[in-house]
Amino acid sequence: MTVPFRIPTxxxxxxxxxxxxxxxxxxxxxxxIQQLCHTLKSQLLAVPNIMPLQSPITVVGDIHGQYHDLxxxxxxxxxxxxxxxxxxxxxxxxxxxxxxxxxxxxVLKLRYPERIFLIRGNHESRTITTNYGFYSxxxxxxxxxxxxxxxxxxxxxxxxxxxxIDGKIFATHGGLSPSCQQLDxxxxxxxxxxxxxxxxxxxxxxxxxxxxxxxxxxxPRGAGYLFGYDVMQKFCHDNDLxxxxxxxxxxxxxxxxxxxxxxxxxxxxxxxCYRCGNKASVLEILSSNYLSKESDSNGLKGKVNxxxxxxxxxxxxxEASPENNEDTSSGKSVNGINSIDNNTGERDIFQxxxxxxxxxxxxxxxx
Length: 367
What we know:
Layout: H1 9-20, H2 30-44, E1 50-53, E2 57-60, H3 67-77, E3 85-87, H4 98-111, E4 116-118, H5 126-131, H6 134-141, H7 147-156, E5 162-165, E6 169-171, H8 183-187, H9 200-206, E7 208-209, E8 216-218, E9 225-227, H10 229-238, E10 243-246, E11 250-251, E12 255-258, E13 263-266, E14 280-285, E15 313-318, H11 322-330, H12 349-355, E16 363-364
Parallel strand pairs: 1-5, 2-3, 3-4, 6-10, 7-9, 10-13
Antiparallel strand pairs: 2-14, 5-6, 8-9, 11-16, 12-13, 14-15
C-alpha cells in the first residue's frame, strides 16, 4: 500500500544534523531513507530528462562514496543554498561512505530543490552497485538488510539524464551516442528503468571522448562508445550548443579540456579508491558571455584560457581531505545504525556547519 509522505523542513534539517555534526556521520534509519526516497521520486516525476538550468552554477563530477571529500567540495564551492550545484552522477560505489554520500545528497535535494540538481551516472544502477561496493556496504551498515539498497536504487531510475546550462551547454555523465543527433531524442527517452546495456540512455552514461579519433568507436569499457572531434562538432552545431560537460573518467589533475574547450571532463573524487593519488575539481560556471556563432572551425579557439575553459568558467582544483588520508590507511567503512534523539531546531544546520570551518584549498577507463 502506498503511504503519502510529507517531510517538514525541520525533519530535513534534523537529517542534515545527523550527517554533518557527528564523526563518523550517523546513518539514517531505513524507514527514514524510505520516506526520503518516496518523496523525492514523486518530485522527480515532474522533472524532464534534460533539465534547463542557468548560471551561475557549480558542476561536480564523480564522488564515489567519498563522503568527506564531498564535504570538502561544499567548503570550496560554497554551501547550499548560497551556491547552485549540478552533480553529474556516480554518487556511490568504490568509496567507504556511499550510504552517507547519497543520503546527504537526497536530503539536500529535498531541502533545497532549486539549488541542488542530480543526474544519473553509470553507477546509479542495480547491476553495477551489486558488484562495486554499495550493495555490500548497505548489508554491513544495516545489519544484513538490503531494504535501503532497494529504496535508493529504485530512486536512481527517476534521476534525469542530463541538463542544459544557459541553453548553450549540455551536461551529462558520460557522453554522446551514435543513436542520438538531437537533444529532443534524449527528451523522449523512457528513463524510469534500469540503465540498459545499449541505446541512447546507456551511451549517455557510458561514453567517453577520444582526441585520437574523429567519429564513433566501440568503447574499451564494454558499454557505450568513444567519440571524436567531428562527432562533437556536429552535435554542438546541430543543437546550437557551445560545449559538452561530463564526468566519468579519472583525471590526474582533476579535469581535462578537449578540442579547445568544446568538451570538458570534471572529476571530483580525489585520491580515487584511496590509492590513485589524483587531484579533483569542480567547475564553476559564473556566466555565459559567449555565443555559438562566435565559434570558428577549430571550435572556440582564442576564447579558452589556460585551463582550457570558456569565459566565465573556472576549474577549482583540490586535494583529498584529511579524512580521505586517514581512510586510505585504516579504512572506516562500517558505521552501524545510530540512534537519533528528538531535535526540531529551526536553524540552517548545513550552512552553519561550513561557516565554522576554515577555507582550504592521465585519464583512465575505470568502471
